[in-house]
């Protein structure tokens, strides 16, 4: 067909089901052609509604949805050339794998031989050849997922929309199917939009991670940006891996400022992207859990480590390649250090020990 | 089979005990079925082989006379043809109406409360007796009924239509009126269990409304259609009252014939006809069950 571009632009998209509250509230976003984009957020944040609006199963209350340069609001899914893979797959239970996959071609009026040939080629692509004549109920979860993927992909859509595609699978299979999704996306070379509430899934797969809360986009960017440089407390807490601390600015010194804390020295924070702060402001900062080192009181801090906060060890969890040490460093927030396994066991702590939680100045990130 | 112990084979329940429990589970059904179904059928079956003195007296024995008589009579074939005609017509109309009413309730009424309300509305006619429902057609269809008067007043016809009441048309109308609910209920039930996501997935694939009905809804409502068909077919084939009242005595059915036999004390022929009808119905029902695996569909 004429336009194979699968770039998407959402402009001021709003959706309200009751006319009072906006489930999706003024979303603006650009997704490049051929990108793997993950929408992530807690349930009820509007991510599935956005997906359904892009798919054409829901109309936006306001705003434009542009695919390949064309406003698609009001068009049927077929005219948009999108395809959706439903949560829990929605396979037709009375049709075999082959018939399920050929369904879209059948309703498009393709001849039986043509559509079965196309379906068989697709079945081979998702490695289900030996299951082609089975009914969905006779397949495992992972196989059903592959049928759903094949059924969506057979129409050669320019955008494939996946609604929590891995949530029905167990942990091991999820990791395996995650790779399969990525492989299919690269093989098909089309835009994938994937809705999930698992941050690991999002950062493992996506070129573009979109973090949502209450109908609004909190942050959108490359996986590493969103994970390592969260904009605010919400994104930092949701993506995980960060300790969030708050306090008042005690003094501002050029490119950095000092945050008042229980520690005698305070916490020195580089300004980085944050425009400016003034004394007395309440500021949130984030410190990556794997940037925190634990030192016994009285020992020397590693070079460059200026901040050190006295803490008590609350709990210890062994995680394999690292050890998760929970501390009472800050009164109201959780504070955790991920200590590499070998470092930890060279001088193991026990619950109740007093330690200094310390990190390099550059590790502290001011949040909006 | 899994080697792991299932809850039913816990150590203190021996196979004999499990067996007893099984019998206890089915006993209420057995207590109802044996006196009210199995025993009467056996009585009828026995009577069909007895001889009669022609005045209602039965001579126990074994003779096939009644069957020969029934099967040799040209009337039997005519009656079966008439009954099958009513059955097929009623089935077609109840199926069409029942399917679309159920389809509307399940897929077009968004508000579930409203759907249940409308569903209950379908049962309103059943709050009065069968006889009153039939009689209530008379002022509508009769010679001086509303329809005839309206058509006369509009000048469409110049003489009242006779076919409206006391005719085969009236019989079919009365049957459809009475039995559509038996189609609506099972079809509604099987349609309601279709996951709405499937419809959405079909739309996503580009299916039209007609495609969805043809490829998704109808195949997935098969069990409901089959159940409704069994209800309607067995009720129409086993009925004589509607035929008698609505045809004004002009038409007959299989059952009305053996009702007449009973009236003139010909019990063995009546019993033989009844056994024959039962066999025909069993054949029809098993044919339906063979086409649609109801048990599997219901377990879905």
Short account of what is shown:
With 368 residues, chain A is an alpha+beta fold. Chain A is 26% helix and 33% strand. Chain A contains ten helices and 20 strands.
Return residue spans of chain A where pLDDT drops below 50 for at least 5 consecutive residues: none
* Straight-line N-to-C gap of chain B: 21 Å
Give the N-terminus to C-terminus distance of chain A in angstroms.
45 Å
Number of strands of chain A: 20
* Sheet with the most strands, sense and barrel status of chain B: 2 strands, antiparallel
Rg over alpha carbons of chain A = 25 Å
Query: Tell me, what's the shape of chain B?
Result: flat
* String of helices and strands of chain A: EEEHEEHEHHHEHEHEEHHEEEEEEEEHEE
Please render the helix and strand layout as text.
The complex is a heterodimer of chains A (368) and B (300).
Chain A: E1 8-15, E2 24-31, E3 36-40, H1 47-55, E4 62-67, E5 70-71, H2 77-80, E6 82-85, H3 97-107, H4 112-125, H5 141-153, E7 159-163, H6 171-188, E8 191-196, H7 199-205, E9 208-213, E10 216-221, H8 223-228, H9 233-239, E11 242-253, E12 256-259, E13 267-270, E14 282-288, E15 293-295, E16 305-318, E17 322-327, E18 335-340, H10 341-346, E19 354-360, E20 364-366
Parallel strand pairs in A: 3-8, 3-9, 6-7, 7-8
Antiparallel strand pairs in A: 1-2, 1-4, 4-5, 9-10, 11-12, 11-14, 12-13, 14-20, 15-19, 16-17, 16-19, 17-18
Helix pairs in contact in A: 3-4, 3-5, 4-5, 5-6
Chain B: H1 15-48, E1 51-52, E2 58-59, H2 65-72, H3 74-108, H4 112-122, H5 130-135, H6 138-141, H7 146-154, H8 168-192, H9 196-204, H10 209-220, H11 222-237, H12 241-246, H13 254-263, H14 267-291, H15 294-299
Antiparallel strand pairs in B: 1-2
Helix pairs in contact in B: 1-14, 2-14, 3-8, 3-11, 8-11, 11-14, 13-14
